[in-house]
Structures are given as structure tokens and as C-alpha cells.
Amino acid sequence: MPSSTIRSISITVSDEDGAAAAAAPTRRPCGGRRKASARGLGQRAARLVARWWPVLLLLPAVALLLFEASRLRGSPRPPPRTPPASDGSTRPRASSVACASVNETVNVHCGFYSDNGGFKISEEDKRYMRTCKVVVSTCAFGGGDDLYQPIGMANSSFGRVCYAAFWDEVTLSTQEAEGKVIGDDGMIGRWRIIVVKSLPFVDQRLNGKIPKMLTHRLFPEARYSIWVDSKYQFRRDPIAVLEALLWRTNSTLAISEHGARSNIYDEGKAIVQKHKATPEEVEVQLTQYRQDGMPGEKRLHGLKALAEASIIVRELTPAPNHFMCAWFNEVVRFTSRDQLSFPYVLWRINMPGMSMFPVCSRRDLVNSLGHTRKVKPLTQTNPESSAS
Description:
By secondary structure, the chain is an alpha/beta fold. The chain has 13 helices and 14 strands.
């Protein structure tokens, strides 16, 4: 076909084809489409986070609470407190019974005797002792001291505090000879008189350490206790004393500082000089403490090393009970001079919640009336009882 003919050929395009061609979108490269899609997803995610961020924060907290709750439900319950032995002993009937569990593998024994052991208390007195929640206690064994009536109790404390005085039969007969007779309700004034039979030790000072240090064994339902040596008259409201010495200081055990000395080895010399123990007894005890590495510091764990120990205020919970059990074990093991063994126990047991108050505070709590007469030693103890 000639070229002129080719140049004259034309292509007719309809209006519908033109509109379709105009409406067809322009094809974009593949990479640009993916970027636009990603930007759209990011914007939607940001809008969702902005809208629901409180819920996103709450979900982890709820999950943590559920985890902790399930863990607590699976933890073992603490063992129940062991009730007093039915024979009236202040200690467990078997040597395997422990005073306070320190951890899963260590138990601290708190003194125990055979089934026929001593320190027997009547069932009536034991029933009374189980009713006490706050107790002020003292003891007079061997007839050495009179009974001084407490003063200064606030009206709000009446009916909330037990006053318990432990006597042996020697003290009972001595006081009755002076006209101080126990009433039908077991009381003399504000004191409930608890007569103890079959004292386990020949040393009356050592017998006195049982109510002094093992209050938690004698009063199984009590929460707080205040110990007062028998030479003192207690002259403050017990609840106010708990508030001042325990609650305000966030303490569980408060004891009076020693006013004259601060060093355990100086205390040993003073005990020998005052003939409160033999030189041989003191030397055996201090030699053992030296071998254990006991330092001669004046302060231990931030507290004065020596305590006067005539007033002890404590909460009857595991930590202070453990401390008192360990202290009792030392006076049974060595001399009955508890001021000599206190620094050792304080050093070995860095107990949280321990506090010490100065001599001026002790003098504010009590009137010092001194010992009335010489203590009569025991001539015979229960032959079937044996200290451990």
C-alpha cells in the first residue's frame, strides 16, 4: 500500500472509551504502596494506644496480684502454739519440743524436764493464767521478799491487766506468818498469788529465772508482759509503759541498761568481788565466751552491752521469745547471774526490735524497796526432775 494511503488512515475513538481511560487510576510502584500501608497501620495502632492506655497499664497489675494470691494460698500455715504440759511443767514434756523456730532447720530449746518434772502449778491457777492478755509478773522464792502492791494504774487499765506473783511454799508460809493471807479469790490486793511446787533447781535465783524469762510458756494466751523484780514496787500504768517503751519506739523487747558497767569481762570481775558467784564458775563461763569470739565491747549492735535486767517489757512474739529462750539456756548452762550472759546472747542474736532504756527511766517506773530478808535455800528438790 502506498505511503499516502497509510498517512490518511485515522483511528476513531468513542466517548465511552475516552471516559474509561480517563477514569483508570495511574499504576504506582509496588514499594510506595507498602510504605503507605505501613503508615496507615502505625497511625491506627497509635490511636488504639492513646484510647486504651489505662487498660494496658492495669492488665499487668492484675496479673501480678493474681500471681501473688496464688502463691500465698499455696504457702504453709504457721504451726500452732504448743499448749502447756498437762503435768503443770513450765516446759515441754519431751526434749524434742522447741521454744521458737529460727528457720526451717534450727530449733532453740527452751528448757525441759522429764514427765515428772517440777515447777508445778494448780489447774485453777493455770486456768487464770490462760485468761491473761497483758501481764505484770514478779516472783519471790525462798521467803526473801515481801509483796509490794502496784500503784499508778489508770482506770482504763482495770480489767485489762493481770498482776501475777509466783511464790514457793517457803514464801507462802513466811507471808502467812506476817498476816498476809491469800483470799478465796487467790488474790492479795491486786496480785494473783500463784504458788509453785516442786521447784526444779537448788539455786533459788535460777528458779526465779523461769517466770522472769519464760513468761510466754506460763501465759500462752498473753500478748504483752512486764517483768518486775521482787525488790521493786511497780508504780506506773502498764498500758502507758507498753506505749512508751514498745509502741512508740517500734520495739518488741525493752530492757533497762546497766548503770555501773558496760563490759562483760568487767561484770565478771564485779560478780566475783561481790561473791555472787565463785571465781571458778565465772572463769568457766567467760573462757567459753572468749573461745566463741565474744568481744569485750561496750556496745553491741548499737546497744549498751550490759543490761540491769530488773525490768523487762516485751511483746510475746517469736523473735523476743527466741531471745529469752536462748538467754535462759545460758543461765542454766553457766551461772545464774543473768547480767553476765545477756551480752553474749545480745551479741549472738542481733534481734530486730530490741531497745534499752536508761537508768533514769527505770527509776521512774519503780520504787526500789530492797530485799527484806535472806533467801532460804531449798533443802530438797524433786528427785525425778532434771535440768537439761
